[in-house]
Design a protein that fits this description.
The complex is a heterotrimer of chains A (196), B (343) and C (601). Chain B is built from 16 helices and two strands. With 343 residues, chain B is an all-alpha fold. A two-stranded antiparallel ribbon of chain B has the order 1-2. In chain C, the strands form four sheets. In chain C, strands 2-15-14-18-16-17 form a six-stranded mixed beta sheet, sandwiched between helices. A five-stranded parallel beta sheet of chain C has the order 1-12-11-10-13, with helices on both faces. The chains are: A mainly alpha (196), B mainly alpha (343), C alpha/beta (601). The interface between B and C is large, with 45 and 66 residues.
C-alpha cells in the first residue's frame, strides 16, 4: 500500500518536473500564428475582408474571425488556412467579393489628369507619378487590388487580367477517366484551369 | 480541351493484361491443389469467381462507377482465385461466398476501389473468416489421398460436411508437426504418411507449382524478385538460426514447401497495391512478412500465418516507403521521412 | 590500317537505371540522303527560338536584308541572335503562330524571299586556330548558335561559364528518341565537318579528349566517324552504348560513358565535361570556318502519314506545312503533327508555325501508328514506372502528390529532378498520363513560388508604406507644433517690439514690405500671362477636348445614376470638375477670339 502510494508520488513528481521543464525550455516566442496566417494570405492588401491590409486580417483570424473573407486568395487560401488552423474550410463569403483571375491595373495614360488620388490609394506604392504629371502603374508590383480604380476622377484605370506567356503557361492537370463522375472531380480551386 | 502530352506512344501493357497474366500464373498451383487434394478447390474457384464478379459489378453500380470498365481489369478475378487457393477446400459453399464478398466489399471498395486498398483484399477476407469462424477454417482441409470424388465433394460443400466425413482432415502438415513435436521426436512425427523426404506429401508439389507460376511472373517482369527472395530468405534464415533442432521446431523444408509459403511469396505478398514500392522497401517488406510468418507459425496459435503476416506488413508499408526512397540521380543522399530537410 | 587502332579507342560503358525499349522506327527515315527543301516564298523567324531572353529586332518593315544578316540581336545575358535565312524584304514584325503546346502566338519577323539568295559579305576563317578564344566565342555568339539537340541553349554560354577545368568534350550522338535520324544521317554524310567542329571546341575548352557517345543501332554513323577521325588524324574515343531510351539525355549519357552523375543543381562542367550534340558541332564548324550563321538545320520528317520520310535541310523559319508538304505528308491521314520524337515531343497546335532552331523532327503519325491515349485506370502501384525511371524517382508516389496538388509532397519526392522522358508513362499499365501530371505539378510549383515571392514583396512594400505614412504624420505633427511655437514666439516678440521704440527704417516695416511684394507678384503674373498666351486655334482644340470629356463624363454619370451604381458620387465630382474646366476653356477661347478681332495685328 505504502509502496504503491510512494511510487505514484515519485512518478508524479518526475513527470511534473518534466512538464515544468518543457514548458520553460520550449516556450514559443511571441504569437507566431499571426505570422503564419499572414504568410498564407495573398498580400494583395485590398481590404475586401474589411481590414486595412492583410496583416490586420491575419490578426483578426488569430482572434477568431472567419477564414473565408479573402476573395483574392480564394478557395486555395481558405484551404491552406483551414489546414493551418485545423478548422473546417468554408466556402468564400460572397459578401466580400468573388474570386477572380489575377489582374493588374493599367492607367490609360493620355487620359490621366495627374490628380495623385490613385497614388494615395495604392496600398503597395505601385503607382508612379506626381501632381499634374501623368501616372503609371509598375505592373510587376501591382497586386491587382483595384483600390485605385474608384478614386480616379476621370476613370482612366482599367483592371486587366494577367495573360499567360510562354514563361508562365503550364500544362493542365489531366482529368482522369474516373473523374468523369461529378463528385470525384477536384474542387475548382484545386484546378482553376479546368474550370476555365 | 484535353491537352495531348508526351509521350505519344505507350507500351502494350494494361491493367487487365497484368491481372489476367497473374491469374494464368496461378493455374499450375490451383491445378496441383485440385489433383493432389480435392475437387473442392475447383468448386471454390468457380464459386469465388462468380461471387467476386457479381459483387464487384453490384458495388460499382451502387458507387456509380463504369461497371464494364472496372470488371474488365480482372482485379476481382485475382482476388477470387487467391481466396480459392487459400480457403479450405471442403468448407461449406457459403463460406466461400461470404469470404469473397467480404474481400471485395471490405477489402477493396470500402477503401475506394482498385488501387486504393491499403490491405490485400483476399487476406482481409481470410483473416475475418479465420477470426469469425475458426472451426470451419481449421477443420475442412482435404486429405492427400483424394478419397472424395467430385460428386462427394459437391455433396460435402453444398449439403454440409457432417454427413459425409470421408476425406476430411483437421490438420495440415505444418499444424500436425507443431502439435506432435511437443510429445514425440522428429523421427516419430515423420512416420506419419503425410510427410515425405522433402516437405509433405501433396504440399510439396503444390508449392513447387506455385513457385513455377511465380518464376513465370518474374520472367515476364510482372513482379520483381525483391519480395519473394527476401520473404523466403528471411523465413529460411530464421528457420536455420532458431529452429534448426528438428526435435523442437518445424524443419526448414516444411516451412518452405508446405502450407501457403510459395503462394504467399509470389502471389500474395507481391500484390503491388498494398506492398511497399521502392526496391529497398520491397526487400524490407518481404523480409518482414517472412519473419512474421515464422514467428506466428512457431509461437502463434494459428496453423498458417500468411494472412496475418501480410496484413501486419501492409500496415507498415507506407512507413517503409517513407524511409526507403531511392537516392535520386545527382543527389548526395536519399530524401527520407515526411519532411524535406534539404532546404 | 595500323594508324587507326592508335587513333580510335573504344571506351568503357557503364549503365543507367531504368530505361525502356520502344519500337525504334528509324529505318523509315535513315536510308535516304539529306535533301534540301527549295526556298519558300515567306519565312517567319520567331524572336525566341532558344532558352533565355528573346532577341530584339534590328530591322524595320520594308527593309531589304541579305542572307545571313542579323535581323534580331541577342538580348543580353543568355540569348541568341536571329539571322535572315535568305535575302529579301521584311514584310512584318508581329505575333505569329509558334511551335509550342500552349498555342500562344509569339513575336516574329517575316521575310519575303526575293529568290536571289544573296549572301552578306562573308569572311571565312580557314586559319581559325590563330584566332583568340574571345574572337572565336564572339563568332559563335554572333552566329546565333544554340544547342540543336532539342533544348536550344545558346552554345557560347557553355564555353564562357565553366566552373572546373574541362577534361572531356563529350559528343552526344546517341539520338535515342524513336523515329529521329537527323543526327544519324548528318554523321553518315558529314562526319568530317562534325569532327572539325569538335576540334574547334576542343581548342576552346583546352580539353584532353573527344569522347563520342553513340547508340549501337547506328553502326554506319560510327564507322563514318572513325573514318573521318583517320582522315583528320584526330584522336577520338568511341563509347558505343546499348540502345535504350533515354540514353541520349545529357545527364544519362554522361552516366553511361563516365559512370559519374552530374550533381543536383550542377552542370556537366562540374565533372570536367562539356557535352555537345553532333548537329551543334557541325554548325560551329560552318559558322567559325565558313562564316555561315545558324540559318538552316537538318530536320527528320517521318511518320506513317508521310510518303517520303527522310531528312531535310530546312531554312529556319520555313513553315512546318511547307516542309510536310514537300515530304509528301497526307495531312488528312495524320492524326496530329508532333515536333520532336514520340517520347518527348509535343503536338503542334498550328502547322503554320515555322521550323525553329530546335526542330529536330516533325512526326506525322496516323491514328493507327500512334493511337491516342486510352482511358486511364487507377494506379495499382505496380512499380513498373519506378523500374523504368532513369533517375530513380518514384513516379507512382509523385503521381499521387501531383494529382491531389500536394506540392510539398511532390517536392519531397524530388519532382524537380524529373527529366520528363516519359519512360514511366510508357510502361504504365493503367495508362496514366504521368508526364502531364508532373508537368502540371511542376508548373504549379513554379507558379506558387513566384506568387509567394510576389506576395512577400507586396507585404514589404505595404509595410514600408505604412511606416512612411506614420512617419509623415508624425513629421507633419512636428511641423505644426513648430509653427505654432514659432507663431507664439513671433507674437511674443511683436508684443515686445511694440513696447520698444520703432527704428523707423523702411525695410523693417512689415506692411510696406508686403505691399511691395504684392506689386512685384502682380507684375510678374501679367508678364507670364502675355508669354503663355495661346493662339485661338490651340485654345479651340483644348476647348473641344474638354467638351468631349465633359460630355462623356456626364453620359457616364447618367448611366451610373440610372443603374444606381456606387460610383455616382465620384463620377459626379469628376463631371463637375470637367464642367468647370470646360467652362473656363470656353471663356479663354472667347476672350482670345475677341481680342483677336479687336487686335488686327
Amino acid at each position: 500500500m505504502i509502496t504503491a502510494i510512494l511510487t505514484l508520488l515519485v512518478l508524479a513528481a518526475i513527470f511534473g518536473a518534466l512538464l515544468g521543464f518543457a514548458s520553460i525550455r520550449f516556450k514559443p516566442e511571441g504569437n507566431p500564428i499571426v505570422e503564419d496566417i499572414n504568410n498564407i494570405l495573398p498580400q494583395t492588401q485590398c481590404g475586401q475582408c474589411g481590414h486595412p491590409g492583410c496583416r490586420p486580417y491575419a490578426q483578426a483570424i488569430a482572434d477568431g474571425e472567419d477564414i473565408n473573407k479573402c476573395p483574392p486568395g480564394g478557395e486555395a487560401t481558405i484551404q491552406a488556412l483551414a489546414d493551418l488552423l485545423d478548422v473546417e474550410p468554408k466556402p468564400l463569403d460572397a459578401e466580400h467579393g468573388e474570386e477572380k483571375t489575377p489582374q493588374v491595373a493599367i492607367i490609360r495614360e493620355d487620359e490621366c489628369i495627374g490628380c495623385t488620388k490613385c497614388i494615395q490609394a495604392c496600398p503597395v506604392d505601385a503607382i508612379l507619378g506626381a501632381a499634374k504629371q501623368m501616372h503609371t502603374v509598375i505592373e510587376s508590383e501591382c497586386t491587382g487590388c483595384d483600390l485605385c480604380v474608384e478614386p480616379c476622377p476621370v476613370d482612366c484605370i482599367d483592371m486587366v487580367p494577367i495573360e499567360d506567356t510562354l514563361a508562365t503557361w503550364h500544362q493542365n492537370r489531366p482529368l482522369s477517366n474516373i473523374e468523369l463522375i461529378a463528385t470525384d472531380r477536384p474542387t475548382p480551386a484545386v484546378n482553376k484551369e479546368d474550370a476555365a | 480541351m484535353m491537352t495531348l502530352s508526351s509521350p505519344h506512344t505507350t507500351g502494350s501493357n494494361t491493367v487487365s493484361r497484368l491481372m489476367l497474366t497473374l491469374c494464368a500464373a496461378l493455374i499450375p498451383g490451383l491445378l496441383a491443389l485440385i489433383v493432389f487434394f480435392s475437387w473442392g478447390y475447383l468448386i471454390n474457384a468457380i464459386l469465388a469467381t462468380v461471387t467476386a464478379l457479381a459483387v464487384e459489378a453490384l458495388i460499382l453500380k451502387i458507387r456509380k462507377r463504369p461497371v464494364l470498365f472496372f470488371l474488365k481489369d480482372g482485379s476481382a478475378l485475382v482476388t477470387a482465385l487467391l481466396l480459392a487457393c487459400a480457403l479450405p477446400p471442403l468448407a461449406p459453399w457459403w463460406l466461400i461466398v461470404l469470404g469473397t464478398t467480404l474481400a471485395i466489399l471490405f477489402g477493396k471498395h470500402l477503401f475506394g476501389g482498385l488501387g486504393q486498398n491499403p490491405f490485400n483484399p483476399a487476406m482481409v477476407a481470410y483473416a475475418l473468416l479465420l477470426v469469425s469462424l475458426p472451426l470451419l477454417m481449421t477443420t475442412r482441409w482435404a486429405a492427400v489421398d483424394q478419397s472424395a470424388d467430385f460428386g462427394q465433394t459437391v455433396t460435402i460443400i453444398f449439403q454440409g460436411g457432417q454427413t459425409v466425413l470421408d476425406g476430411l482432415t483437421g490438420a495440415t502438415p505444418l499444424d500436425d508437426y507443431k502439435q506432435s513435436i511437443s510429445r514425440l521426436t522428429a523421427e516419430d512425427v515423420l512416420v506419419n504418411p503425410i510427410y515425405q523426404t522433402i516437405g509433405a506429401v501433396g504440399w510439396t508439389p503444390v508449392n513447387l507449382a506455385f513457385l513455377l507460376g511465380g518464376l513465370v511472373l518474374l520472367g515476364l517482369r510482372i513482379i520483381t524478385w525483391h519480395i519473394p527472395v527476401s520473404l523466403l530468405g528471411s523465413l529460411a534464415l530464421l528457420s536455420i538460426l532458431i529452429g534448426s533442432d528438428a526435435d523442437a521446431f518445424v524443419p526448414l523444408s516444411l516451412h518452405l514447401l508446405s502450407g501457403s509459403t510459395m503462394l504467399a511469396a509470389f502471389f500474395i505478398a507481391t500484390d503491388p497495391v498494398s506492398a511497399a514500392t521502392s526496391n529497398r522497401g520491397k526487400l524490407i517488406y518481404g523480409a518482414g512478412i517472412g519473419a512474421l510468418i515464422y514467428i506466428i507459425r512457431t509461437w502463434g496459435n494459428y496453423p498458417d500465418a500468411t494472412a496475418f503476416a501480410v496484413l501486419l506488413m501492409n500496415f507498415a508499408a507506407p512507413l517503409i516507403d517513407h524511409y526507403t526512397r531511392p537516392r535520386v540521380y545527382g543527389h548526395k543522399a536519399a530524401v527520407k521521412g515526411y519532411k524535406n530537410e534539404q532546404d | 590500317m595500323t594508324v587507326a587502332s592508335s587513333l580510335i579507342t573504344r571506351s568503357r560503358v557503364w549503365s543507367i537505371s531504368g530505361g525502356i525499349h520502344p519500337a525504334e522506327h528509324k529505318q523509315e527515315s535513315n536510308t535516304a540522303p539529306i535533301e534540301a527543301i527549295p526556298l519558300p516564298s515567306t519565312l517567319w523567324l520567331p524572336l525566341n527560338m532558344h532558352i533565355g531572353a528573346p532577341a530584339t529586332p534590328v530591322v524595320s518593315v520594308g527593309q531589304m536584308v541579305r542572307k545571313g544578316q542579323i535581323i534580331a540581336q541577342s538580348g543580353g545575358g543568355i540569348s541568341a541572335s536571329v539571322h535572315a535565312p535568305t535575302s529579301g524584304r521584311i514584310t512584318a514584325i508581329e505575333d505569329h503562330a509558334y511551335a509550342h503546346e500552349s498555342g500562344l502566338k509569339q513575336p516574329a519577323i517575316a521575310i519575303e524571299a526575293d529568290g536571289l539568295d544573296d549572301w552578306r559579305k562573308q569572311t571565312p576563317w580557314e586559319d581559325w586556330a590563330s584566332k583568340t578564344h574571345e574572337e572565336l566565342l564572339q563568332r559563335i555568339h554572333d552566329g546565333g548558335i544554340t544547342g540543336l539537340g532539342g533544348a536550344g541553349f545558346p552554345t557560347d554560354i557553355k564555353y564562357r561559364n565553366r566552373h572546373a577545368p574541362i577534361d572531356t568534350l563529350l559528343i552526344n550522338a546517341a539520338e535515342c528518341e524513336p523515329y529521329i535520324t537527323a543526327d544519324d544521317r548528318l554523321m553518315r554524310e558529314r562526319a568530317e565537318d562534325i569532327l572539325r567542329g569538335a576540334q574547334i571546341c576542343l581548342h576552346l575548352l583546352g580539353a584532353r579528349r573527344i569522347l563520342i557517345g553513340i547508340e549501337d543501332n547506328k553502326p554506319e554513323a560510327a564507322t563514318a566517324l572513325e573514318q573521318a577521325a583517320e582522315t583528320l588524324q584526330q584522336r577520338i574515343e568511341l563509347a558505343v552504348v546499348p540502345t535504350k531510351y533515354p540514353s541520349g539525355g545529357e545527364k544519362q549519357l554522361i552516366q553511361l560513358v563516365t559512370g559519374k552523375e552530374v550533381p543536383k543543381g550542377g552542370l556537366p562542367s562540374d565533372l570536367g565535361i562539356v557535352c555537345q550534340n553532333v548537329g551543334t558541332l557541325y554548325q560551329i564548324y560552318r559558322t567559325v570556318v565558313h562564316d555561315e550563321p545558324l540559318i538552316s538545320r537538318i530536320t527528320t520528317v517521318t511518320g506513317a502519314a508521310v510518303s517520303n520520310p527522310g531528312n531535310y535541310e530546312v531554312l529556319i523559319g520555313t513553315s512546318m506545312e511547307t516542309v510536310l508538304n514537300h515530304a509528301g505528308a497526307h495531312l488528312k491521314k495524320a492524326d496530329r503533327v508532333i515536333m520532336g520524337g514520340p517520347m518527348m515531343g509535343f503536338a503542334v497546335p498550328d502547322i503554320a508555325a515555322p521550323i525553329m532552331k530546335s526542330t529536330n523532327c516533325l512526326l506525322a503519325p496516323t491514328k493507327k501508328e500512334l493511337p491516342p491515349a486510352i482511358e486511364d485506370s487507377p494506379c495499382i502501384r505496380c512499380g513498373l514506372c519506378e523500374q523504368a525511371c532513369p533517375v530513380d524517382l518514384l513516379p507512382q508516389q509523385m503521381h499521387w502528390a501531383s494529382k491531389h496538388r500536394e506540392l510539398e509532397s511532390a517536392e519531397l519526392h524530388s519532382l524537380e529532378d524529373c527529366i520528363e522522358c516519359g519512360a514511366c508513362a510508357y510502361v504504365c499499365p493503367s495508362r496514366i498520363p504521368l508526364v502531364q501530371y508532373f508537368r502540371y505539378a511542376k508548373g504549379e510549383l513554379k507558379q506558387e513560388r513566384q506568387q509567394h515571392e510576389e506576395s512577400e514583396r507586396a507585404r514589404i512594400r505595404f509595410e514600408n508604406r505604412q511606416a512612411r505614412l506614420e512617419r509623415e504624420k508624425q513629421e507633419k505633427e512636428a511641423r505644426r507644433k513648430a509653427r505654432a511655437e514659432a507663431a507664439a514666439k513671433a507674437q511674443a516678440e511683436k508684443k515686445a517690439r511694440e513696447g520698444a521704440p520703432s527704428s523707423g527704417s523702411n525695410d523693417d516695416d512689415p506692411v510696406k514690405a508686403a505691399l511691395a511684394r504684392a506689386a512685384a507678384k502682380k507684375q510678374a503674373r501679367a508678364e507670364s500671362a502675355a508669354a503663355v498666351e495661346q493662339s485661338p486655334a490651340e485654345l479651340k482644340e483644348a476647348l473641344d477636348k474638354a467638351k468631349a470629356k465633359f460630355d462623356k463624363a456626364s453620359t457616364r454619370l447618367q448611366e451610373a445614376e440610372a443603374n444606381g451604381d456606387a460610383m455616382v458620387a465620384a463620377l459626379k465630382k469628376a463631371a463637375d470638375k470637367l464642367e468647370e474646366k470646360y467652362l473656363s476653356a470656353e471663356k479663354a477661347y472667347q476672350a482670345a477670339t475677341q481680342s483677336q478681332e479687336t487686335d488686327p495685328s
